[in-house]
Design goal:
Elements (H helix, E strand, L loop, with lengths): L1 H15 L6 E3 L5 E14 L16 E11 L4 E12 L8 E12 L2 E9 L30 H4 L1 E12 L5 E10 L8 H8 L4 E3 L4 E2 L2 E9 L5 E18 L3 E20 L2 E16 L5 E15 L4 E11 L8 H5 L9 E11 L4 E12 L15 E12 L1
Antiparallel strand pairs: 1-2, 2-3, 2-19, 3-4, 4-5, 5-6, 6-7, 7-8, 8-11, 9-12, 10-12, 11-12, 12-13, 13-14, 14-15, 15-16, 16-17, 17-18, 18-19
Length: 396
């Protein structure tokens, strides 16, 4: 708690005097400082979703971060972000190093980064912390699951990036990273694992992940405001598991994810679409390998009506097993077929109080329960349900 109070005090001290931009600290040699702090509220009608206690309304939904960067030379830049968050019974305001790296830009078409580097998977992973850049509160969970944010946000390793002009054909941006993914046992990974075992499993040590590879290529087309991208992630992980507090075993997960994205902006209108598939092999100790292919996609739109008001919406569809979109395998076991999918229709309202303060309201109508965790919900018999969120953010 003492570390959290010091962290918050430092963030507020820098932020309140910041105005609309970054703080430039001459005493620190021109270090640029940005920060944010937000408090949210989650509520749901049928299920505890995201937070373990959202059915009764939960204020255990906050995040805060402060980052420091410095342009050391014309080509070298260094930076780091300290981050903390709370999401129900996950994270619990633990202070972490969110990202930290050195960035050497040799040419526009080739730069190198080393350290803890943000993963470029998808359209929003690198910017998901910057609340001011989007309308929604909760990003589509089939692409950006908040419970495992700390695992998917960055890799510890080395990356290459660059910008390549293509003349009349537009330009390309690329980014690739080879490194290690880290799993904090206090993250939502254990909750997902426990739910998949019917609530009787727990991590029995550290998760071991082989070198992961991730990257994205983005084509900025000649049509102003239109960009197309392809991104991918590959890794192999080994989970030590204790089942029913008796059986110690291991589960190996070999995963390859790839997806495409489309972004288009015109005046006050912004559109985004992503499609993603995940091919996953799961092998228990001494057992046979099972394969599952997931399919996910969403369409998002937002429109700014005034300087202070913006509306947004998205429709996200998730099929954890694309070979069983109708839920026949669940019906065969006497379970509800809606466990085979989750379809989320979200509507968001954003109010920009001033250049530093933003308030958002959001509602979700959901069909299906594929992402409703058994560990927080003993009964998952209802297929249609709702949840909502509110969030107040200060950033500088």
């Amino acid at each position: 708690m003492r570390k959290i109070l010091i962290f918050v005090a430092a963030l507020i001290m820098f932020g309140w005097g910041a105005g609309a931009g970054a703080v430039e600290m001459d005493v620190l040699g021109g270090v640029s400082i940005h920060g944010f702090i937000s408090q949210g509220f989650l509520t749901s009608g049928e299920y505890n979703y995201l937070a373990h206690n959202s059915k009764t309304g939960s204020f255990e939904y906050n995040e805060m971060g402060i980052n420091f960067s410095k342009q050391v030379t014309d080509k070298l830049r260094v930076g780091t972000q300290i981050f903390s968050r709370d999401l129900g019974d996950v994270a619990n305001n633990k202070v972490t190093i969110d990202w930290a790296y050195g960035d050497y830009k040799w040419r526009d078409w080739l730069g190198i980064r080393a350290g803890r580097i943000k993963s470029p998977l998808g359209l929003f992973n690198e910017t998901r912390d910057i609340d001011m850049l989007r309308t929604c509160i909760v990003l589509p969970q089939n692409f950006y699951p908040d419970l495992v944010r700390d695992v998917t946000i960055a890799l510890n390793g080395v990356g290459l990036y660059g910008y390549v002009p293509l003349g009349a054909a537009g330009s390309l941006d690329y980014s690739g990273i080879a490194g290690a993914m880290t799993v904090d046992n206090e993250s939502g990974v254990e909750k997902y694992l426990n739910s998949s075992f019917g609530g009787v499993a727990a991590l029995n040590g550290d998760v071991d992940i082989d070198t992961a590879l991730t990257g994205r290529i983005k084509w900025n087309t000649p049509l102003s405001g239109l960009a197309l991208s392809v991104s991918a992630l590959k890794f192999k992980a080994n989970f030590p598991i204790l089942v029913a507090n008796i059986i110690s075993t291991e589960l190996e997960q070999d995963q390859f994810t790839w997806g495409t994205g489309v972004e288009y902006s015109w005046q006050n209108l912004a559109l985004a679409f992503e499609y993603r598939t995940t091919d996953m092999d799961m092998t228990p100790s001494g057992g046979a390998t099972t394969n599952k292919k997931a399919e996910n996609y969403y369409l998002m739109a937002s429109y700014r009506f005034t300087d202070w008001f913006e509306l947004g919406s998205y429709y996200a569809i998730a099929y954890p097993n694309k070979e069983d979109k109708d839920g026949d395998s669940f019906k065969a076991m006497g379970l509800p077929d809606h466990r085979a999918w989750q379809k989320d229709l979200a509507l968001s309202a954003r109010f920009d109080i001033n250049s530093n303060w933003t308030f958002k309201l959001e509602g979700h109508k959901v069909d299906g329960t594929s992402d409703v965790l058994a560990v927080d919900n003993a009964d998952r018999s209802e297929g249609d349900w709702y949840y909502g969120a509110a969030k107040l953010t200060f950033s500088f």
